[in-house]
Amino acid sequence: MAFNALIPTLEVENMDETIAFYETNLDFVCVNRDDNHWALMTKDDVDIMLSSRFNKDEFPKTTFTGSLYIHTDDVDVLWQILKDKVAICYPLENFDYGMREFAIYDNNGYRIQFGQELETN
Questions:
Q1: Rounded mean pLDDT of the chain?
Q2: Which of 7, 69, 80, 104 maximizes the CB count within 10 A of its CB?
Q3: Phi, psi (deg, nearest 5) at residue 54
Q4: What is the pLDDT of residues 43-82, one digit of tens each?
Q5: Which domains are seen in the chain, by residue range?
Q6: Torsion of CA 62, 68, 94, 76, to 10 degrees
């Protein structure tokens, strides 16, 4: 038995605004959509599903305590593109565990990290 893919689903407050955020800032494309209830965004080998909010009475705000971590082939260029356009969680830096990365927040407050392995000699 094999697992073939993982596609996170994020509950969003406003579907149109969220689709626009991912298309405008991160070059995702909305490849499928069901009115304001569900959408599938894709870029290269990364897919993210968006969903309208469930259980708003129990959970009045969107919540996710983790983050989405996206590996990229040029984190420095991506940093230059995004650093002045989106809310930054932490800036570009090298980490002892061998990654060069930064993190942003999307328009719903979800944290998205972008990383690239540091070259070793």
A1: 94
A2: 104
A3: -110, 155
A4: 999 999 999 988 788 877 877 889 999 999 999 999 999 9
A5: 7-53 (3.10.180.10), 66-121 (3.10.180.10)
A6: -100
For residue 112, what are the β-bridge partners?
68, 104
Tokens of 56: 């708003």
CA distance 97 to 100: 9
What count of residues does the chain have? 121
- Give 11-75 as a DSSP string: EES-HHHHHHHHHHHH--EEEEEETTTEEEEEETTEEEEEEE-S-TTT--S---SS-EEEE-S-H
Residues of the chain above pLDDT 70, percent: 99
Report residue 85 as tokens. 């356009």
Distances from the Cα of 29 to the Cαs of 33, 47, 71, 99, in angstroms? 11, 10, 18, 27
**For 16, phi and psi rounded to 5 degrees?**
-60, -45
Structure tokens that stand for 55 in this block: 């259980």
- Say which DSSP state 76 is in: H
Q: The whole model's pTM is what?
A: 0.91
